[in-house]
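Anyone up for a design puzzle?
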């Protein structure tokens, strides 16, 4: 017995192929548009983050002549906890200089109450040195404690010293 395919089978095969190709192209187009939309949104967010970062840098150094920047000047810390204050010391002078910074107070404190990087460091003009000052409140009484962060240009003539206040409020 001999079976022959007529034109009807060939047309159905062609129609199925065309429908599958159209559906495939539609899905591909929709997928590409979705991916394009996602990446467009990401690039917009990345530009916004860049603008916000630049604004924060400008806010951080409001005073172009500021040698010391403290992240906050009046933090409230629970008794027995550590507080980490971010500090940036900048060289505002035209040449490279050696700097050192210290934390001073009028109170008698335990040796481990305040810790910071205590060595000298060199900065080129406009460069900043970031440090973290760690306050351990275990030995501090409840209430307000005054500190002063001093940055000294060691090889400036005459020796230059700038300072910023830091008030630590120890709460129960």
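Challenge accepted. My sequence:
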């Amino acid at each position: 017995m001999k079976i022959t395919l007529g034109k009807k089978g060939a047309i159905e095969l062609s129609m199925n192929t065309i429908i599958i190709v159209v559906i495939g192209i539609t899905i591909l187009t929709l997928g590409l548009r979705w991916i394009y939309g996602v990446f467009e949104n990401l690039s917009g967010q990345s530009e916004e983050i860049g603008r916000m970062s630049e604004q924060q840098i400008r806010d951080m150094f409001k005073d172009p002549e500021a040698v010391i920047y403290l992240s906050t000047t009046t933090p409230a810390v629970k008794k027995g906890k550590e507080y980490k204050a971010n500090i940036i010391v900048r060289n505002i002078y035209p040449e490279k200089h050696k700097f050192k910074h210290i934390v001073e107070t009028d109170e008698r404190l335990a040796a481990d109450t305040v810790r910071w990087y205590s060595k000298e460091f060199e900065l080129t003009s406009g460069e900043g040195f970031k440090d973290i000052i760690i306050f351990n409140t275990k030995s501090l009484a409840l209430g307000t404690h005054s500190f002063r962060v001093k940055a000294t240009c060691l090889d400036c003539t005459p020796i230059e010293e700038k300072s910023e206040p830091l008030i630590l409020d120890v709460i129960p």
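A detail worth pointing out: The two ends are 100 Å apart (CA to CA).
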